[in-house]
Amino acid sequence: MPFISKIQRQTDYRRFPSSTPIVIDNGASYFRIGWAGEPEPRVIFRNIVQRPRHKVTGETVTIVGDHDVALLKYFDCTRSGPRSAFDNNVVYQFEIMEYILDFAFDRLGADGSKIDHPILITECVCNPSQSRSKMAELLFDTYGVPSIAYGVDAVFSYKYNQHHGLCNKDGLAICPGFMTTHVIPFIDGEPEYKGCCRTNIGGYHITDYLKQLISLKYPLHMASFTWEKVEDLKMEHCYIAPDYMSEARMFQNGTKEAEDKTRSWQLPWVPPPTEEPPSEEMIAEKAARKEKAGQRLRDMAEAKRSIRINELENESHGLGFLLKQLEQVEDHDIQSFLSATGYISRKEVESALVKVKQSLLKAKGEQAEFEEKPDTERFNLLDKPDHECTPEELKLKKKQLFLKTTAEGRQRAKRKRHEEEQERERRNQQDEQRRLKNPELYKEQLRAKYNDLSEKVEQRKRLKTSKGHTNGNNNSGNVGRGERLNPEQRERMRLLTTAAFDRGKGEDTFGARDEDWQLYKLMSKDNDDDDEGPDVDQAELARLTSRLREVDPTFVPRSDNGNLQSAEAPWSRPLTEEDYRIDFGVERFRCPEILFRPNWIGIDQAGLDEMAGVSLRRLPSKDTELEERLTSSIFLTGGSSLFPGMSERLEAGVRMITPCGSPIRVVKALNPTLDAWRGASAYAASPEFPSQTFSKQDYYEKGEDIVRGYQFQYHVL
User: Fold this and answer.
1) In angstroms, rounded to a whole number, what is the distance separating the alpha carbons of residues 343 and 508?
2) Is 506 helix (H, G, I), strand (E, B) or coil?
3) How would you class 630 by CB atoms within 10 Å of its CB: exposed for 0-12, middle for 13-18, buried for 19 or more?
4) Are 343 and 351 in contact (CB under 8 A)?
5) Parallel, antiparallel, or unpaired: how do β-strands 666-668 and 634-636 relate?
6) Three-state helix/strand/coil letters over 24-41
7) Parallel, antiparallel, or unpaired for β 53-54 and 43-46?
8) Does 502 score more than 80 pLDDT?
9) What percent of the chain has pLDDT over 70?
10) More confident: 497 or 411
11) Do residues 92 and 85 lie in contact, with contact meaning Cβ atoms separated by under 8 Å?
12) Which residues contact 62 (CB under 8 A, 6 or more apart)?
């Protein structure tokens, strides 16, 4: 099975005799394996598995633990994410566990599939017998180990530190791990499992909470917040606040101490290239290229125009020659003469000639002169009465009437545009005269007019947005249906009600008269008068804005988008180095605080300080002296106990739930992450270890009963 990893394979596996046990600390976060009696484990890696496919060959590879991120570009990881064998702190995915054990034994140096060494493997407190049985079956059948022993990781850590004089025989071991947190009381050096308690919160939840907070705070850089990076940021920057409310209030007030406690993480940032202004030579060269391209386009257009003019002239000459020939042909022979040309009558030929001449004049740029000439013959049927016209002439008369109305409408629109242009020019001249006469007064008047008109337009937009839903006091609530309608809406409602009322009376005659259909036009008419045509105020506001920009360089127009523009303003500007800086302030102590307040993330369970009190209450004997001995030796171990301030905060929390004057002492393990493996290694090297194991033969003779009643004895350490 191909593995991908940065961990080097050990080469001294054969040096150890088969009687030397292999010690495994099977944690939910990290897997540690080594030889009994050694101070450090040989192999440490993250307890996860990923099985992507190679993008080229399609081969499935197994990635266990840490790996080189640069290698992932060769694999398709879209359908295979990191997977763990644990559910909280219990192993339940033994297929994944097999991949992890294969990799661990391979990196330890094992050559074959059989492991001829006793195994001491750690587990959680009160591990279910089914998980124990499955693990034993996996080790016995797959790897052929001779014997197995189970031990609790937190107990090994406690006994190891007790051997070094850090804690007493009676005490409380609090182990905030990766997925769960345990509290184990010790009496006379042995764990009292009846007083244990567990909370489903640990370092995983802290990392996930921190990832959520910074992703919400910096959504632009969510791709940079990988799980591994957030885990490193958590261990580097997070701490436990002695008093959470006081610490949060300090950051809220923005004191100097809060600024000192803020940490920053600078993401990679490349400054945008600065564009230098082009030189005169570059400007001249660009203008020359532009002129050359423009000239080429003009030449092409002129060539196409010449070709078009030649075609139209040839067609005009041909139609003129055809008309001359028709003058020499008798009327009854015209249709047969024109059968080969595609025309039917002389009028059709003349009409085609007129159209060709119009197109020719337009191509030559003489269309305006041609349009100004009146064509009296074009509308010769308009003065002729209808009873004197043939059916064909009636159709032609309607067509001439439509063409004449359209032409007159174009002429009126042209005159109106000309008048508006003259009026605009006259107003501009008057404005320029007033500006030259008194520039400051002119700008002040222009600004006042702009402000009044802008306020009017904004007021209209607000009313349009609220659809007139006000009751006179700018409040939209507690008004009736009639008060929310504007006059146009009330009229439309009246028409609908009247039509419905009339429809229910006797025979329905609606639509018999032409006037009835006007009701549909009134009901379908848009209620907003502003949308029926161009907004005069809006156009005038645009003109004032343009004029103010010309006469006053310091003028800044009002925002048309209101708060939306201000909210989007930071993203419309180019990003700077400060935009790529991730600041950690409140997040530094807010995330680890969930160890004491799990309800913040929806876990309705007790915190660390409450768990200590629960464990004391669960003890079989209610002895005050025993409780004082236990609280005088509170031991912290596990990866989540590495946060600064953990001991002080836990001591303050336990002091609040114990009687006044009770001795309280909180100590931390020498190495909270490795002491569990070191304690197990020291015990596996002792002569009494073989008596604590059970063999493959014992397992298959007694079945699951042997693992159900199995309990490790820790009195040797």
Assistant:
1) 55
2) coil
3) buried
4) no
5) parallel
6) EEECCCEEEEEECCCCCC
7) unpaired
8) no
9) 85
10) 411
11) yes
12) 1, 2, 3, 4, 49, 50, 51, 99, 103
CA distances from 513 to 500, 516, 518, 529, 653 (A): 17, 6, 10, 29, 89
pLDDT of residue 28: 92
The full length of the chain comes to: 717
Predicted confidence band at 53 (pLDDT cuts at 50, 70, 90)? confident
CB 49 within 8 A of CB 62: yes
Cα gap 446→441, rounded to integer Å? 8
Which residues, 6 or more positions from 520, have their beta carbon under 8 angstroms from its beta carbon? none
Extract the tokens encoding 109: 């140096």
Q: What is the pLDDT of residue 218?
A: 92
State how far the Cα of 319 lies from the Cα of 356, in Å rounded to an integer. 9
**For 109, left (φ over 0), alpha (ψ -120 to 50), or beta?**
left
Residues 206/595, Cβ–Cβ less than 8 Å: yes
Give the predicted TM-score (pTM) of the model. 0.63
Cβ pair 176, 193 in contact under 8 A? no
Smallest Cα–Cα separation from 552: which of 451, 440, 450, 452?
440
Of residues 604 and 495, more confidently modeled: 604
- The Cα–Cα gap between 353 and 442 comes to 60
CA–CA–CA angle 489, 495, 498 (5° rounding): 140
Spatial CA neighbour of 454 closest among 377, 387, 370, 544: 544
Quick one: which of 412, 392, 312 has its CA closest to 357? 312
> What is the pLDDT at residue 705?
84
Beta-ladder partners of 64: 49
Tokens 């629960």 sit on residue: 614
Residue with tokens 């464990």: 615
Phi, psi of 24 (to 5 degrees): -125, 125
Neighbours of 266 (CB within 10 A): 10
* Residue 583 parent element (H or E): strand 581-584
Per-residue CA distances from 242 to 173, 205, 317, 649, 701 (Å): 21, 21, 104, 5, 55
Q: What are phi and psi of 492, to 5 degrees?
A: -65, -40
Structure tokens at 622: 């209610």
Which one, of 616, 598, 701, 709, lies nearest residue 662 by Cα?
Answer: 616
- Strand-pairing partners, residue 183, are 174, 197
CA angle, residues 419, 423, 425, in degrees to nearest 5: 115
What gap in Å lies between CA 678 and CA 684, rounded to an integer?
Answer: 10
Cβ(50)–Cβ(81) below 8 Å: yes
DSSP-based three-state secondary structure for 604: coil
Query: What secondary structure does DSSP assign to 141-210, as a single string?
Result: IIH--SEEEEEEHHHHHHHHHHHTTSS-SSEEEEEE-SS-EEEEEEETTEE-GGG-EEES--HHHHHHHH
Q: Residue 92, class by beta-carbon neighbours within 10 Å (0-12 exposed, 13-18 middle, 19+ buried)?
A: middle
317-352 CB burial, b ≥16 within 10 A, e <16: eebeebeeebeeeeeeebeeebeeeebeebeebeeb
Cα 262 to Cα 713: distance, rounded to the nearest angstrom: 48
